[in-house]
Write a structure and sequence with these properties.
Length: about 280
């Protein structure tokens, strides 16, 4: 699992932890599974030509969580929509609300529709509407979607978004879950425990440092560490760091809440969580 973007809300600068909005990838043979298409997607797409760990990728499965633009703003900048005849197949999977928003955001005069950009570049571009429920089959993997608690604004302008978390089980390999843009509550704990107990790695929302700060459908480093304590056999990675959180604030929260937890880390751009098949876990 490679981290390409771990900020939430907007891109930042001068951070050693991360400056680009959300994007994580997991390669399995000729298939690349990508969680969210924030600005980190631009770095990932360029790396297909330079990173030998990504050579041989033929199909990209892009799993977008929801309609907020920091989770799809990297789409138009990805090299595979600009490099001629690159022979890649791209499938964008997302809730209907997100697919509709992405389509609208690329309409003229704002930009160029993705299907037009794909002409002469990708071998194939397709879109798949997802909803929470039963698992679906993907090439070499099984995907299940879960409803997350995410909203923007405050009353009377509060608006809940159709937001999905994902659990991806690779055939003969690891199971990875992605619960970004989610505010944990007592009512959501059963879902979080179900996802974590069936996964070797879970990437969770950690927009804030501490639980009392939870707001706008976001969690914290503290809530991520609590999940790691409840599931010692699962590696928990705290991502979606808030753009107002400095490196020192993030590191301080990690030290206060995650000290002594061998199965807990914070997401850092350019770092990997490496699957150890012999041990059956991520390092």
């Amino acid at each position: 699992m490679q981290v390409w973007g771990c900020r939430g809300g907007r891109n930042t600068c001068n951070s050693h932890i991360g400056n680009s909005t959300s994007c994580y990838s997991l390669a399995a043979g000729a298939d690349l599974f990508v969680f969210d298409a924030g600005r980190g997607l631009c770095t990932l797409a360029a790396a297909l030509a330079t990173d030998e760990r990504l050579w041989g990728i033929e199909r990209i499965h892009l799993l977008i969580t929801h309609a907020h633009m920091d989770h799809w703003e990297g789409l138009k900048d990805a090299d595979w929509l600009w490099r001629r005849d690159n022979e890649l197949e791209l499938t964008v999977l997302a809730p209907k609300e997100a697919l509709d928003t992405i389509a609208a955001g690329h309409q003229p005069p704002a930009f160029v529709p993705l299907d037009v950009l794909a002409l002469g570049t990708l071998r194939r571009l397709s879109f798949v509407e997802l909803a929470a429920g039963a698992p679906i089959d993907l090439p070499g993997a099984t995907l299940q979607a879960f409803s997350l608690r995410h909203y923007s604004g405050t009353p009377p302008h509060q608006r809940y978004l159709d937001t999905l978390g994902y659990r991806l089980a690779i055939a003969g390999g690891p199971t990875v879950a992605y619960l970004s843009d989610h505010e944990p509550t007592v009512d959501t704990r059963a879902m979080e425990d179900e996802v974590a107990s069936g996964s070797q790695l879970v990437i969770v929302d950690a927009n804030y440092s501490d639980v009392p700060q939870h707001a706008f459908g976001h969690g914290s480093i503290e809530s991520a560490a609590e999940l790691a304590r409840r599931h010692p056999a699962t590696h928990v990675m705290a991502g979606h760091h808030g753009p107002l959180q400095s490196d020192s604030q993030i590191e301080d929260a990690r030290g206060r809440h995650g000290a002594g937890l061998p199965n807990f880390t914070i997401a850092r751009e350019g770092r990997d969580a490496v699957w150890d098949p012999a041990a059956g876990r991520f390092a």
